[in-house]
Predict the structure.
Amino acid sequence: MDFCAALFQALSTVGGEYAPYARVTRAGSLPFGEGASWLAEWIWAPGLILMFLPLLFPDGRPPSRRWRPVAWHGGLSIGLISVSASLVV
């Protein structure tokens, strides 16, 4: 799972560097500048969501009732971050 999170973080970093170069530095010379900008802003979300997979493996429920607040807090955090990021950008 850490590999997936690292992959999504790497895609976010590459998109964050490619987008300004394609849109500002060499405007129009490289394809997919706007798409890379959008990708850089949202690609972190699947990586964060995949971090919950070990918590819910193998039967789709946390290992015990004590883990439920962790799952709720994580889910609400992802939701709030997503909403605030969509309003700011």
Summary: The chain is about 75% helix and 0% strand.
